């Protein structure tokens, strides 16, 4: 189960820290590798569950990023 999954009774009580974010990033890396492997084997239908977990993780990380603005970075040239 994804570390991003939180039961309803715990929502809003979880502490977001660097370790949690790192675990999500590592999990996403593994999910992407698994998805690619299934797709390369022609078993795309079987990777849908992993795509859902990856999507949930990415939405969770985006929500954290939006809620924690950082100092403005220099524009890319």
Overall description:
- Helix 1 packs antiparallel against helix 2.
- Helices cover 56% and strands 0% of the residues.
- The chain is mainly alpha-helical and 77 residues long.
- It starts with 17 loop residues before the first helix and ends in a 10-residue tail after the last helix.
- The chain contains two helices and no strands.
- It has a domain of 50 residues.
- Pfam families: SSXT (PF05030).
- Belongs to the SS18 family.
- This is S18L2 protein.
- It comes from Crocuta crocuta (Spotted hyena).
Main sheet characteristics: none
User: What string gives the helices and strands in order?
Assistant: HH
Helix content: 55-70%
CA-atom Rg in angstroms? 15 Å
How far is the N terminus from the C terminus? Answer: 41 Å
Label the overall shape: elongated
Figure out the total of helices. 2
Share of residues in strands: under 5%
Number of strands: 0
Structure classification: mainly alpha
| Overall average pLDDT | 81
Low-pLDDT residue intervals, each spanning 5 or more residues = none
